[in-house]
Amino acid sequence: MPAAIRLQGLAKRFGRLEALRGVDLEVEQGEFFALLGPNGAGKTTLISILAGLTRASAGSASVMGYDVVRQYREARRNLGVVPQELVFDPFFTVRETLQFQSGYFGLRRNDGWIDALLHHLNLSDKADTNMRRLSGGMKRRVLVAQALVHKPPVIVLDEPTAGVDVELRQTLWQFIRELNHQGHTILLTTHYLEEAEELCERVAMLKAGRIVALDRTANLLRADAQRRVELRLNPPQLPEALRGRLVGERDGAFLLSLRDFDELEGLLAKVREAGGQIEGFCVREPDLEEVFLQTMRGGGQA
Ligand SMILES: Nc1ncnc2c1ncn2[C@@H]1O[C@H](COP(=O)(O)OP(=O)(O)OP(=O)(O)O)[C@@H](O)[C@H]1O
Predict the structure, then answer these.
(1) Same fold for the pair 3-222 and 226-285
(2) Pocket test for ligand 1, best of 7, 12, 14, 211 (most atoms within 8 A of CB)
(3) Can you say whether residue 275 is alpha, beta or left, with left for phi > 0 and alpha for psi between -120 and 50 degrees?
(4) Residue 217 C-alpha to ligand 1 middle, in angstroms?
(5) How confident is the chain (302 residues) per 10-residue block, as mean pLDDT?
(6) If you measure from the C-alpha of residue 137 to the centroid of ligand 1, how many angstroms do you get, rounded to a whole number?
(7) Cα dihedral sign for 203, 49, 120, 30?
(8) Ranges for the ABC transporter domain (predicted)?
(9) What are the residue boundaries of the structural domains of the chain, listed by start?
(10) How many whole angstroms from 26 Cα to the centroid of ligand 1?
(11) CATH second-level architecture of 226-285?
């Protein structure tokens, strides 16, 4: 069984800028996979290469075993991309947009599936509305429908929930989850890390064009992230004895590392000994955001 997505030594240069610097990655069929990274890390460039919109400077990429350059048509037929940017012809209706996209893939009688897509994405009552009359969130739903019109086994979503309301997010994830359960492979990029943590079994983190972490989500949480104590103090000064534990500050509160709960008493005692008063206190379980921030600070695998 070929990998859903396979990248080998993938590199991309824009003049002197190296957007991708030798990325190796395999996403298996049926995975729900997150590709994370800060702005400019190379996520969209990687997706553009997969979709055949940009040529790699070196290395290769394939979708379901089809090389994205040598076997462009087969690779493209196996891939559905929900792009970041909303670009449409404003004069078509929603249905026409989807029929047009079906035609691009040589699908003439696709109305049954188009109706199903409209239904799942809560767009049925907008089927005959012109694209220019839709709100941003509705346009985004059409983008999703457009990417799925040919029932591709591999679905790539590039920040699909940026600027999208809670209701649409939930509708969208419910539908994408269903598709994943049916066997579709999902590659997701997002800046909402709690979304990735909840949905994705495996995560790759990109930093300046390189993969700096790649593992199952659960392993990343176990290996890198620590429990944190969040302390709000009056006066807002951390006692000298706790300086070594400080890992950050968030909204005026100190974040201290906590290896296990037995340490808690000693830690609070040190605040009292220094004459400090505790105004707020909570223990935070490790989350993907913490792993991400740690990795981006330079702590990740090379
Ligand atoms: N057509 C282009 N010409 C020149 N530089 C480009 C081009 N496209 C992307 N870049 C540069 O390549 C780098 C990677 O960009 P890319 O859009 O892939 O990042 P990203 O991870 O998708 O970021 P974001 O989270 O902001 O979407 C950036 O430094 C960007 O400025």
Answers:
(1) no
(2) 14
(3) left
(4) 25
(5) 97 96 98 95 96 96 98 96 83 94 91 94 93 89 94 94 83 93 96 92 96 92 77 91 88 86 88 90 84 76 42
(6) 24
(7) negative
(8) 5-233
(9) 3-222, 226-285
(10) 22
(11) 2-Layer Sandwich (3.30)
